[in-house]
Amino acid sequence: MWVPGRIEVFGKHTDYAGGESLTCASEQGIAALVERHEKASLIIHDVARGLEAEFAYNKLVQDGSWTIYPFTVLKRVISDFGMPEHGIRLVISSDLPSASGMSSSSCLVVAVLLGLLSEGGYSDLPFSDVAAFAGYAGAVESGAPFLTSSADAESRSGVGTRGGSQDHTAILLSESETLGLYGYHPVQRFEQIVFPDDCTFVIGGSGVKANKTGSAREAYNRASDMAAEVARLYSVDVDEHFPTMGAMMASPYFDRESLRWAIPDNDLWDRYQQFEREVDYVIPEAIRAIKASDWDTFGHVADNSQKMASDWLLNQIPETNALVRLARGLGAYGANGFGAGFGGAVWALVKKESALQFKSDWATAYRSAYPQHGDQSIFLLNSPGPGAWVSLPGSVAGVVSGQMN
């Protein structure tokens, strides 16, 4: 089984808010061997880090920070579909940098979910296609109800972040050398954009962990909560129910001036403006620019997205802003911080023929500016890769492999 990470090209914090995003799978990810064993338990063995965890099906206990992800998946699967008929062991190895913004946590969630549902003896699972499965994977991580809608809220508490399914969708639906434009309520692919064959991404990891635990979780959830509050306040003002900002803006009666009166709080207004501009301007203009090889416009759009993230979304840090600035100064067509933010990485789009030299120069410039992060910062070449693939007999494996390969 192969499960990649993802690169968010544009669409910062838009998925859970009812918007679109432009993404692709990374070349790095998790390779996993899935096998049955005799005990009624899930065993995860991480060979790269020398870690192992075991969870008994009839006595679920979570201990340790990284184990929250397999624990959450197992708990939700048991609640929704019952205990697996077989003990399952996943031997995993990953070259995806942890907490880098490349979605290592969602990658692990998808890998464990695929292993459990493919080898657990389940049948007649309620996933018509891989898009529906991606939506479920996102709900498992966030704790949202989905299809089966676990009655017990505790059984679907998620990992504590109120996110969406962007990461899981990119991980599962991506195709090589293309960027995918997706919506998320429900998950659907709107368009595939051919990636320019003379370009590549260079990923610059800041060395500042983009964790989703502790204070970082609070910051992430604040952005999510503000998006929900904008939709709630407008709903109250017009006496209708809009679950997301995207649904609110899609209403034929939506009025921007009325919204401004409904949310006089400037922080909420900034959160709305960032979402509106990212969805209505940044993404469509970036797609047009890529198709036309209009790199001046592409760079301007990327700069605008980064500034909004820094000034309005407030999920950038000095290091990611510096990575963008340095990349642009070195000649990148565009650069952008991506993922949850509050740390993590930046992509830079560059000519393939000069990518190695650019990577070296970018790393040198960044490590000179931030020597304290030198040992933790990473710089990688990355072209859009394929989504997950599974070579297992289970029903979910068939859906994923059949839809994506």
Short synopsis of the structure:
This protein is α+β, with helices and mostly antiparallel strands and 405 residues long. The protein has two domains: 210 residues, 2-Layer Sandwich (Ribosomal Protein S5, domain 2); 187 residues, Alpha-Beta Plaits (2-Layer Sandwich), CATH 3.30.70. The chain is 42% helix and 21% strand.
Number of helices: 12
Number of strands: 11
List the domain count as a whole number. 2
* Helix and strand composition category: alpha+beta
State the CATH class of the largest domain. Alpha Beta
What about the largest sheet?
7 strands, mixed
Which ranges are low-confidence, i.e. pLDDT below 50, for 5 or more consecutive residues?
Answer: none
Q: What's the CATH architecture name of the largest domain?
A: 2-Layer Sandwich
**Ends apart, CA distance between termini:** 13 Å
What would you say this structure looks like, in words?
With 405 residues, the protein is an alpha+beta fold. It has 2 domains: 2-191 and 385-404, 2-Layer Sandwich (Ribosomal Protein S5, domain 2), CATH 3.30.230.10; 196-382, Alpha-Beta Plaits. Helix content is 42%, strand content 21%. Strands 1, 2, 3, 4, 5, 6 and 7 form a 7-stranded mixed beta sheet that branches. Strands 9-10-8-11 form a 4-stranded antiparallel beta sheet. Strand 9 and strand 10 form a beta hairpin. Helix 3 packs antiparallel against helix 4 (166-173) and helix 8 (266-292) packs antiparallel against helix 9. The chain starts with a strand and ends with a helix.
Key terms:
alpha+beta, 11 strands, 42% helix, globular, Alpha-Beta Plaits, 2 domains, 7-stranded mixed beta sheet, 12 helices, Ribosomal Protein S5, domain 2, 21% strand, 405 residues, 4-stranded antiparallel beta sheet
